[in-house]
Amino acid sequence: MAKQKASIPTLRISHLPADIRRALPLVKTRIKASLPPTVFRNEQHQLPRPNQGCEYREFRVGHAHPGDSRGAGKRRLILEINIKGREVREIYFTDRHYQPGSFRRLV
Predict the structure, then answer these.
(1) CATH code (residue 64)
(2) Which residues contact 70 (CB under 8 A, 6 or more apart)?
(3) Is residue 53 within 8 Å of 10, Cβ to Cβ?
(4) Where are the alpha helices (DSSP H) in the chain?
(5) Could you give the CA distance from residue 16 to residue 65 in angstroms, rounded to a whole number?
(6) Judging by beta carbons within 10 Å of its beta carbon (0-12, 13-18, 19+), is residue 16 exposed, middle or buried?
(7) Contact 47, 8 (CB under 8 A)
(8) Number of domains in the chain
(9) What is the pLDDT of residue 9?
């Protein structure tokens, strides 16, 4: 069963690591230009069911650790996007690649 939005802890965008904060506008720009290729299926039901006409899209962001050149590691932004208007409805962040309880709803 999918979680309720209110049951997911929140995190202020200002409290995100700097590299993740810098990635947010870039991710939103990519969505407006065209939908990114990776659909997040929420198979473990850690997030609420997307609203009608919406789906989740996944972005690997930042570095595994500040200064780590190996890539994004376990950090992900999951965006609920209205497909027709390409509008972002909700943004979730995890720094532990889908581990139970790791998602935070950005406010």
Answers:
(1) 3.10.450
(2) 63, 64
(3) no
(4) 18-33
(5) 13
(6) buried
(7) yes
(8) 1
(9) 95
Report the distance separating Cα 56 and Cα 54, nearest Å. 7
Residues 6+ apart with CB under 8 A from 68: none
> What residues in the chain have per-residue pLDDT under 70?
1-2, 35-37, 62-73
Q: CA of 21: how far to CAs of 7, 44, 45, 56, 95, in Å? A: 23, 26, 26, 19, 13
Instruction: Please provide residue 24's backbone torsions phi and psi, each rounded to the nearest 5 degrees.
Output: -55, -50
Domain membership of residue 94 as a residue range: 5-106
- Residues recorded for the chain: 107
Q: Could you give the strand order of the β-sheet that contains 76-82, starting from the edge strand earlier in sequence?
A: 10-11, 104-106, 87-94, 76-82, 54-60
Q: How far apart are CA 99 and CA 94, in angstroms?
A: 8
Residue 43 contacts residue 58 (beta carbons within 8 Å): no
Q: Which residue has the tokens 């932004």?
A: 77
- Whether 56 and 42 have beta carbons less than 8 Å apart is answered as yes
Instruction: Give the pTM.
Output: 0.85
